[in-house]
């Protein structure tokens, strides 16, 4: 094992958060090493062409994703069950390689609602503690929307996000999301074009008295030169966003926003194919001194550094903390410890609408194209008497009618055979989809820990997931099914299907890659792993950034929020921590 020359900072995982960290630190004059376990991916948008539109390779065989044969997770619904390894990713698909999820994401870029940051205190103030239930561990973040708003703005202008403000400088604006938190300025780009199905959704929800608006998008609606001086291309609505890289360089990612400059900076060194094994602490156990990893040749290396930034995917962040013995592991029986606590997922309730003779051309799409209502998200509606909290953004969005994955059939259609094939042919272009993407509360029984039985290809314990649905999710889903049915009728659908959330969470069918929690932020070390700057309560020179810090999940995609939090952290690190290392809060 070799011990390398010390550097100022090591970044573990070079995706959105890792890229922001490295960019800000190198601008401040620090030497930074980026350890990325996956392959290098160029800044040139043509690096995947012409194979980028191969649905079988990327959409089904997961070419851009983590190899479950080498590193996976184990799963069970509750602690009385034996956990088994996930052999093929289904419910979620973790990315792998330089750029992380920013390479394969759809580009939907939300700001969380102000309520999302103060869920527990605002819920109790409005409804009383009884609505939460004894086992619900959802909590405030320790930071407010108003504190984060300038950093949301910065991330949106980095990415050239297209949208329409609905709450700008204290004024509510029709046509935008009137429920959103106050904005300091308009989106940097206009919204995406509206699809025909989106027009029907606008008309139908308008008749019901709701407030439709265009979904905010990182699929660029016009050429955009960001504050880094990097130009982002123009979306051509090809529909190959989710699970694919962008052939046009039009989907904001590390490659299209920060990496071109970062790779030219002599202060930054990228080391791809570097699998991190652990973070090493000094004798006191209160300071990290180095990172041990396997390089591309399988040789163990130790990289000393003054600061360690854990910026991998949410579940992998938690696993690395557990492997490194940073923070007390969560014990659900004693309700003590913090690492692994407050794991949460997302609740998706969908509907498919069927028409006669209306052609929607769903294949002409983009990852973040869509028309949304937020009337039933967060605490935007009165929950009195509903016995659940939170909600969902409800929208009409077709990311692409890729034929292997998209085959809609109306109720009563056989599950296979000639009748099924005929229905697919008939309704492939005569159907539209609705989705209610719902928040998920955290519970004492849902958590992450190290599996006592199974190990990965490197001999280290797998991360074990214990997860199921509880009261708030089931009642929210039933509520959303009713709303989706009303909207489908208002859109004049001849037939439609909806489906309740199943009794138990199932790890097999794809639902959402929006896993959060396990290394949550907060103001109390007894219930959080990091403070509001992502700084470990146990080792002050370790910062853990990403969706692992969310104390529960919102009815939104997480990327805008994790980008804003990364800028919030780096503002404090550059202006305060570097000058005087120690506790920031």
Question: Please, could you describe this protein's structure?
Answer:
- This protein is α/β, with parallel strands linked by helices.
- It has one domain (2-45, 73-577): FAD/NAD(P)-binding domain (3-Layer(bba) Sandwich), CATH 3.50.50.60.
- Helices cover 22% and strands 18% of the residues.
- The protein has 13 helices and 22 strands.
- The chain has helices spanning 16-27, 55-60, 101-104, 114-117, 119-127, 145-159, 196-207, 254-257, 259-262, 314-324, 418-427, 471-490, 559-577, and strands at residues 2-3, 7-12, 32-35, 73-76, 84-85, 167-168, 171-172, 213-214, 224-225, 231-232, 268-271, 275-281, 288-294, 300-310, 347-354, 371-373, 392-396, 431-438, 447-455, 461-466, 495-498, 542-544.
- Strands 1, 2, 3, 11, 12, 13, 14 and 22 form an eight-stranded mixed beta sheet that branches.
- α1 packs parallel to α13 (559-577), α6 (145-159) packs across α13 and α7 packs across α12.
- The longest helix is centred in the last third of the chain and has 20 residues, at 471-490.
- The two termini are 37 Å apart.
- The relative contact order is 0.19.
- The model is unreliable at 45-49 (pLDDT under 50).
Characteristic key phrases:
single chain, 585 residues, alpha/beta, FAD/NAD(P)-binding domain, eight-stranded mixed beta sheet, six-stranded antiparallel beta sheet, 13 helices
């Amino acid at each position: 094992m070799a011990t390398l020359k010390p550097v100022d900072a090591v970044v573990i995982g070079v995706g959105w958060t890792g890229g922001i960290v490295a960019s800000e630190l190198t601008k401040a004059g620090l030497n930074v090493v980026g350890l990325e376990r996956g392959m290098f991916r160029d800044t040139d948008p043509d690096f995947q062409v012409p194979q980028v539109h191969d649905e079988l390779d990327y959409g089904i065989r997961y070419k851009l994703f983590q190899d479950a044969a080498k590193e996976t997770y184990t799963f069970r619904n509750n602690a009385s069950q034996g956990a088994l390894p996930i052999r093929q990713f289904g419910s979620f698909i973790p990315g792998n390689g330089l750029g992380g999820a920013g390479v394969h994401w759809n580009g939907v870029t939300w700001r969380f609602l102000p309520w999302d940051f103060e869920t527990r205190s605002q819920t109790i103030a409005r409804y009383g503690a009884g609505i939460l239930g004894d086992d619900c561990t959802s909590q405030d973040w320790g930071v407010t929307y108003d504190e984060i708003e300038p950093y949301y703005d910065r991330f949106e202008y980095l990415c050239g996000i297209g949208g329409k403000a609905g709450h700008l400088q204290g004024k509510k604006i029709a046509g935008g999301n009137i429920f959103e938190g106050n904005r300091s300025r308009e989106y940097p780009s206009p919204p995406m074009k509206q699809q025909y199905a989106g027009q029907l959704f606008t008309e139908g929800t308008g008749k019901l008295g709701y407030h439709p608006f265009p979904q905010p998008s990182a699929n660029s609606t016009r050429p955009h030169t960001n504050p880094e001086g990097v130009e982002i291309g123009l979306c051509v609505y090809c529909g190959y966003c989710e699970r694919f890289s962008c052939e046009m360089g039009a989907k904001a990612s590390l490659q299209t926003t920060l990496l071109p400059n970062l790779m030219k900076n002599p202060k930054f060194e990228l080391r791809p194919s570097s699998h991190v094994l652990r973070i090493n602490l000094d004798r006191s156990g209160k300071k990290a001194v180095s990172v041990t990893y396997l390089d591309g040749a399988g040789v163990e290396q130790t990289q000393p550094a003054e600061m360690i930034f854990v910026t991998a995917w949410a579940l992998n962040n938690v696993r690395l903390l557990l492997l490194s013995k940073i923070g007390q592991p969560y014990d659900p029986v004693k309700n003590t410890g913090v690492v692994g606590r407050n794991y949460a997922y997302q609740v998706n309730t969908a509907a498919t609408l069927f028409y006669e003779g209306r052609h929607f051309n769903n294949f002409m799409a983009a990852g973040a194209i869509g028309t949304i209502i937020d009337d039933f998200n967060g605490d935007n509606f009165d929950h009195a008497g509903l016995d659940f909290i939170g909600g969902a953004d409800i929208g009409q969005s077709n990311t692409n009618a890729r034929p292997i994955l998209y085959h809609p059939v109306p109720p009563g259609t056989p599950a296979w055979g000639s009748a099924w094939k005929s229905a697919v042919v008939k309704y492939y272009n005569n159907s539209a989809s609705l989705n209610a993407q719902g928040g998920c509360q955290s519970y004492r029984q849902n958590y992450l820990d190290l599996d006592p039985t199974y190990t990965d290809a490197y001999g280290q314990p797998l991360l074990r997931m214990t997860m199921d649905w509880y009261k708030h999710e089931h009642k929210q889903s039933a509520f959303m099914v009713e709303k989706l049915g009303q909207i489908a009728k208002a859109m004049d659908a001849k037939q439609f299907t909806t489906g309740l959330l199943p009794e138990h969470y199932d790890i097999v069918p794809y639902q959402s890659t929006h896993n959060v929690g396990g290394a949550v932020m907060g103001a109390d070390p007894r219930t959080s792993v990091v403070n509001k700057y992502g700084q470990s309560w146990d080792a002050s020179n370790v910062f853990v950034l990403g969706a692992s810090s969310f104390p529960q999940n919102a009815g939104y995609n997480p990327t805008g929020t994790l980008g804003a939090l990364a800028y919030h952290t780096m503002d404090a690190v550059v202006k305060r921590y570097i000058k005087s290392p120690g506790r920031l809060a």
